Amino acid sequence: MISVEGLVFDYPGVRALDGVSFSIEPGGITALVGPNGAGKTTLMRCMAALDAPFAGRVLLEGFDVHEEPRKSHREMGYLSDFFGLYDDLTVRQCLDYRAMAQGVAPAQRVAAAERVAAQVRLSERMGQKAGELSRGLRQRLAIAQAIIHRPRFLLLDEPASGLDPEARQELSGLLRGLSAEGMTILVSSHILAELQDYSTDMLILNEGRVVDHRAIEGAGAGGRLRMMLRLSRPDRRLAQVLGRAPGVDDVRAEDTGAEFFLEGGEAAAGELLRHLVDTGLAVCEFAPSQANLQDAYLERMRGGDGQ
Amino acid sequence: MIISPEFRRNLWLELTPHRLIAMPVILVAIFILSALIEETSRSSGLRVASISAFYIIVYLWGTRRAAAALADEVRGRTWDSQRMSALDAWSMTWGKLLGGTAFIWYGGVICLLAFVAAESNHTSAATAWRLAATAMFSGLFGQVVAFVVALVLLRKMPSRPRLPVTLCQFFGLCAVVPFGFDWPLIFRRFPESAEGILWYGWTVPAADFRLLSVSAFLIWAIIAAYRLMRVELQHRALPWVWICFSLFLMTYAAGFVWETGSDRFHYDEGPAMWLLTPSFLVAVSLLYAALFAEPKDTVSQRALVRATAAADWPRVGYLLPLWLPSLFLLLVLGVLLMTQVPIEPLSSDGLLQLGPKIAFSAFVVLAIMLFVLRDIGIVMLLSLRSRRKRPDLVAFVYLLLLYTVFGGLVGSAGWDSVLPFFLPVPGDTALWTVGPVFAEVLLVCVALGWRWHQGGALITPASSELPS
Question: Which of A53, A193, B100, B337 makes a 20 to 30 Å CA pair with B114?
């Protein structure tokens, strides 16, 4: 649905993005992670056609967003990490203005405002001025403004920053709901544990380059599982047996255990376990890995310097 | 979309019930007071008070509000979300311009109606309405100019959290001054001028000329605002509008010296001469305006070099800084002018001793072109220093020092032979008129090349080859 091809972006004296390429399939929630200064915000701004890249392009449904920025904005929603609201307008006016600005048909504007207000649970505050809302409520209003035109692609830059745990929980639920409606979402955040709640994919950026782009195991994307097994007695054949097994890749094995990825979900896991036992390996533990997003992130940041 | 969403949003913010009531109450109170104070003629008191209030509200406050319509978005961090909207550039431009100043014009129209009512007692209604139209267009022009300057500054300093509204207001007020005031007529201190303005041989009444001029400049200012807004909304723009405006301004300026050139120049050639000289001077002025107005960061320069190297001409077109077409125009006009003026200087006393008249020779024209090239080099040299703050301001101060302080010092000390180093004036010989500045141009070019290869503009990419 959206693909980034060889994106290069420079600030004077600094290369912020260095040949970034990836594509995001429709419907998922991709977590954009990386250390401070990795280029996450710059990437999002380029994808949103707010900043023009030095080289490369961003294709949304086949058209270049920088060739047709207005058209792309009808299909996109973007929430900056430092967003602002019109404090003197009421919630209803903010949403009405945004609907008008995004070209929502006049007959549908009121319904659109009420729909998104209900989605972010602001229906009771439509008459309240934006400047009187708490930080969490302002965040909700900003998200409502970003999605009022039902964009197919939503970019959220640090949406959970400054929110209390309860508001974060609500945000997770909201994003899952939007994803279930078919919206493709790219979210950047420093809070990896929270991203794991709702993300289906992870895109790691470091020093302006893509370090890793993968489905998050257990998220159900294509049934790809990260597995770990342990043997009750060492066996040198382990790596060889796993390497030849269908659907298994990225094997890291020792004589007493291994970690690997398995395509095909739980059915394939059952088949593989049967095969390992039949081969004579003394399997005493075989399960999806409990490694979380943070582990995966740290692992890639320590080991990988680009794909 | 008939009503711009941006206009409607501004109306929500600007025209609150409190403001709608307060403005007429205060203005009417002022008008009554002024009418009562002026014992001899109450309409005179009302006339002065209403037009003065208009100047304060529309010129002084309005130029500030027009710039703030954009600056408030930047400060409130709402500008990005506006840029992410589906609003087109025209809707955004007029929505902000008229919406952001809606309250100003609410008060301004009340003042103008009072002025026309009072003025009609002294002159014809047509004259009163013409004055009101001129004041209204002048106010609008000043506001659009302030808005344009805000857009220019936004492009130059995208990471700044605030835009300098006062600077925008200053430029807006500067734009108002030539057109917006007609004190002699308003205060009846002097009889109405019967002479008028001589333009391309036609004598046009001064008031009519001001109205026509400000209308024309207002249209150009609106076009400029629209074009800059398009760029801000990431649309790609070619420099045709700038070239057309340059040609318009050259044609406009030439009209003033068409038959009066001998009053201003130390030569008396034909109409082609009068057309070329003001056009050349206008080209010089516009080049400096574009040079300082355009962003000159290293990234855009490298992007232009890369697009040129790749012969990607459409991309070159919209990356082209506006001072480059201006330089092309200037060089063409300069060469044409050199063929029309005497080769040798008419006076060896130097330009400063010639009084108010301009004495161009072919070598002085060449020297002007070389000084322009030198100045472009200095500005670009300072812009290539990526860590330097406000390189344009530094360059402006350096050039000001070179032309005024150093040039003035040398001139006042009587060292006329050294003057060609600092000013485009006739030297002892034709060669000495252009030689010093030619050496300066070479020096700046060497420094520029050194700076470019030093890494001022270059970033070594992590990958050896850039993706296409």
Answer: B100
User: Where on the phi/psi map is residue B414: left (φ > 0), alpha (ψ -120 to 50), or beta?
Assistant: left
- Do A97 and B8 count as a contact with CB atoms less than 8 A apart? yes
Contact indicator for A89, A97 with CB cutoff of 8 Å? yes
- Nearest-5° angle of CA B145, CA B146, CA B150? 115
Q: Collapsing DSSP states into helix, strand and coil, what is residue B189?
A: coil
d(CA B74, CA B162): 6
Using CB atoms, pick whichever of B82, B87, B461 lies closest to residue A15.
Answer: B461
- Would you call A306 helix, strand, or coil by DSSP? coil
d(CA A54, nearest CA chain B) in Å: 6
ipTM: 0.82
| CB contact A18 to B (< 8 Å) | yes
Run of H or E residues at A216:
none
d(CA A153, CA A72) in angstroms, rounded, equals: 10
Q: How many CA atoms lie within 13 A of B259 on its CB side?
A: 7
Give the burial class of A278: count Cβ atoms within 10 A of its Cβ; 0-12 exposed, 13-18 middle, 19 or more buried: exposed
In angstroms, rounded to a whole number, what is the distance separating the alpha carbons of residues B102 and B108?
Answer: 10
| Inter-CA distances, A294 with A33, A191, A297, Å | 10, 9, 5
Contact A45, A158 (CB under 8 A): no
Residues of A in contact with B80 (CB under 8 A): 50, 78, 80, 83
**pTM, whole model, 2 decimals?**
0.84
Contacts of B5 in chain A (CB under 8 A): 97, 100-101
Average of pLDDT values for A119-143? Answer: 92
Please name which of B157, B456, B443 lies closest in space to residue B305, comparing C-alpha atoms.
B456
Poorest-pLDDT segment among B237-251, B307-321, B400-414: B400-414
Per the structure block, which two tokens stand in for A21?
Answer: 């390429």
Question: Which chain A positions have a beta carbon within 8 Å of B296's beta carbon?
Answer: none
Please report the DSSP string for A146-188 in residue order. Answer: HHTT--SEEEEESTTTT--HHHHHHHHHHHHHHHHTT-EEEEE
Cβ neighbour number for residue B460 with a 10 Å cutoff = 7
Measure the CA–CA gap between B436 and B420, rounded to whole angstroms.
6
What are phi and psi for residue A11, nearest 5 degrees? -100, 160
How many Cβ atoms are within 10 Å of B125's Cβ, its own excluded?
11
Radius of gyration of chain B (CA): 25
**Alpha carbon of A112 to those of A85, A146, B128, B302, B358: distances in Å?**
19, 12, 50, 45, 67
Span B71-87, mean pLDDT?
91
Residue A51's Cβ-side half-sphere holds a number of Cα atoms within 13 Å equal to 21
Could you give the CA distance from residue B316 to residue A71 in angstroms, rounded to a whole number? 24
For residue range B304-354, list pLDDT tens digits in order: 988 899 888 888 988 999 999 999 999 999 999 888 877 765 554 444 444
- Bridge-partner residues for A156, per DSSP? A79, A187
